Amino acid sequence: MLVGFFEAVCWALVVVANKRILAYVNPLPLNFLVRLVSIVGQLIMTVPLTLFGWWELGFGLTPAAAGYIAVSAVITWLVAFNTYYYALRAGRASVVAPITSTDPIWTALFAPLLLATSLGPGTVAGLLVANTGVVLIARWMGDEPGDLLEAGTMPVSAAPTGARTRAGGGALRVVVLSVATAAGWGLSPVIIELAENANGGASAGMMVGSQALGALLLGGIMLARHSRILVRPLSTEERRRVVLLLLVAGVLEAIFSVLFYLIIDAIGSVLTVLIISTSPVFSIVGGVVLLKERFSKRLAFAAAVTIGGVVIATVARMS
Question: What is the pTM of this model?
Answer without folding.
Answer: 0.81
